[in-house]
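Job type: complex structure
Entries:
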Amino acid sequence: MSVTLFNTLTRTKETISGSPVKIYSCGPTVYNYAHIGNFRSYIFADILNRTLRLAGYPVLHAMNLTDVDDKTIKGAIELTQKNPGKYADLKEALHAYTAPYTEAFFADLKKLNIIPFDLHPRATDFIPAMLDLVERLIQAGIAYEQDGSVYYRIAEKKDYGKLSRVDLDKNKTGTRYNTDEYDKDDVRDFVLWKAEGKDGVHWHSDHGDGRPGWHLECSAMIHEIFKGPIDIHTGGVDLIFPHHENEIAQSEAAYGGEFVKHWAHCEHLLVDNRKMSKSAGNFFTLRDLLEQGKKPEVLRYFLLSAHYSQKINFTSDALDMAAASVDKFFSLMNRLGRTAKNQADVSPVLAAASEKARQNFLAELADDLNTPRALAVVHEYMREANAFIDTAKENLAAGDHTTILETLRFFDKLLGIIDLMPQAGVSAELQALLDERNQARAAKDFKRADALRDQLLKAGYKILDTKTGSHLEKV
RNA sequence: GGUGUCGUAGCCAAGUGGUAAGGCAGAGCUCUGCAAAAGCUCCAUCCCCGGUUCAAAUCCGGGCGACACCUCCA
């Protein structure tokens, strides 16, 4: 099945092609723990990845790690000051500073059950490629050197602004920039290579010691890794301008031809209807949420409950609603785990409904990753499956059992929550309490039976009384 | 000021020209000793005002409101 995706460049939905589909997703700057707004973007990349795979596309997916920028350098300098003599040079300190955040990032990806990306290029490993890009731009007459820094001359790029549709002439710049503070020929020009003295993190170059500008790394790494244009480039909407606009300007001018076929951007996660951001201070990290007892699978579900192109407001209520849906899914999984299986003929009705649900689910995803609609399909199927098990009085034909389970697992190839499902281990002690409660119940000692039920609930288990007996399920 | 996005039931959220998906909450019912779980049933005419059309939540114009980018930002 072919997948369509909205392209920011053309503002239309377009069919994805490529074998493999080459994807580059803007990843984190590892100067701190990523917050869940950042993770919306990475989950978006994950959903794209999973959808393409589910639809049968081979995929080659890279997500970068920005480990050199103002913030990481600042952190490295502070680290050096706190530990005099510990690091051979600032570059070593830089790596020491970014390493724990890099590790934390990977740990969080794992906790959220994001399928590992194929490649995670680090900016500092691609300095030569970046310098090569700078040279190409200078050769092409697009970049110029000024006091050891190299700038990109925007006036040379006739179609500058085609992605974000900004017209820089119309933007008000006077209040934002003080032209006198810049050495650039034009305030709008952006830095490719930043002069950096001995007291900063620097690499040698023909233009003197310095370090790469922000936009440089993605262009250089994409060229180095994919050896040509890529199919999809993803990121948050805030990257459209100037980051992605500048990537296009650099890459097209340096390497010629097309840079990226398809630009895909996800909207922001909001808190109190404001963008979640580090600078605003209104952010939560995944760690924060887990400490509050929130579940990663619930966060995953929550992020899928709105389309990626829409803002989504992070609230306690919204998370509770997501939790209810996740519970429903897990309850059905648990229910299947304890239904009896017989050798009766399979139900053609169930088989047809299951097949249709799978097709609809995939079709919704293939249509610009419409996760809310895909979730609607899941809910409808859960209802059908539960009704089917009701009718069968918890005694299913083995084939029907398999059909339902496999369909849920099919959905999970996208949802990615089964791996995060709590294990329902019931201790002998708990089982004894349950047995005692049922004995009391049989003896019509309901007061005692209810007391034992409360006791189990306090221990974190609710009782499910079914046709086939009583079971415990973790709350 | 420029450029975008959005405004759908108590809440969340799809749909974007043919008469409102799904979820949460709520109400009634079945089942149950009672409950829980599950199932069944019920629960909106789409911010406002004009216009186009046989037909508009969906297109156009004008309001009002919210958010984002133009500065580091996913």
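Summary: Residues 428-474 of chain A form one domain. The CA atoms of residues 121 and 225 of chain A lie 9 Å apart.
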